[in-house]
Amino acid sequence: VITSVKNPLVKQGRRLHQGKGRRSLQQFLVEGTHLVQEALTVGHPLAILCATPPWQLRYPQLWDQAIASVPRVETVTPEVLAALATTVNPDGVVAIAPYPTTAFGADRMPPAVPSLGIAVETLQDPGNLGSLLRTATAAGCDGLWLTPDSVDPAHPKVLRASAGQWFRLPQVICPDLVAQLHQWRAAGCQVLATGAAGAMPYWQADLRQPTAVVLGNEGAGLSPGVQAAATQIVAIPMAAGVESLNVGVAAAVILFEAQRQRQALV
Predict the structure, then answer these.
(1) How far apart are CA 140 and CA 103, in angstroms?
(2) What is the largest CA-CA distance in the chain?
(3) What b/e string do you get for 127-160 counting C-beta neighbours within 10 Å, with b at 16 or more?
(4) pTM of the predicted model as reported, rounded to 2 decimal places
(5) What DSSP element (H or E) covers 233?
(6) pLDDT attached to residue 239
């Protein structure tokens, strides 16, 4: 049992609290029972798993699964687990995972041309990215493309806000979003950029065809270059005095309209 918060493993884990440490070590934290369970369920690789004795007794099947599939498992005291975790009241288990070799989330690349995809420019809030991932997975998206100046996809708050769906949706860092949008258009995928009032209401777009939805920064929205690269600007009409929606909510409105149209086609 690891009992000292000065153990090298704790030092390693605490470095993963920061983006610099995650990039340097090419690892990230998976915190809590639900996220660990999702990772094990989909076969996402975990390098190290630390659990307290009470957690092992509470979740014997998960503990056995971890022993069978994780190269290194450690029993730790609650004090050591608290030092490892970013959460205030961790529930007894924290794992360390290697960065994926291809896309974040699911360790596979999404299709070159999405049937239904979502792209985000300069998204800053980790909670927003996590909720967006949860929404996009629920709506059946092929993948999510992020500009390099967006929040780190492996930020602990992103994983928590995704409610475990982080492990099911490929997330790709897209170095040149404008070029990517042009490639999709050339391949027959329409690109819908979200814009302000005056644009076409989103439900008037034909979402039965291959579609990529592009969302912007929480405050500034989409850059002029990205808007210009879109096939169409669409808007979500809102009541007077309301300027915008949370990015996850905006995505949900459009993506589930796409599902509605596609189900109606069947």
Answers:
(1) 17
(2) 63
(3) bbbbbbbbbbbbbebbbbbbbeebbbbbbbbbbb
(4) 0.92
(5) strand 232-235
(6) 86
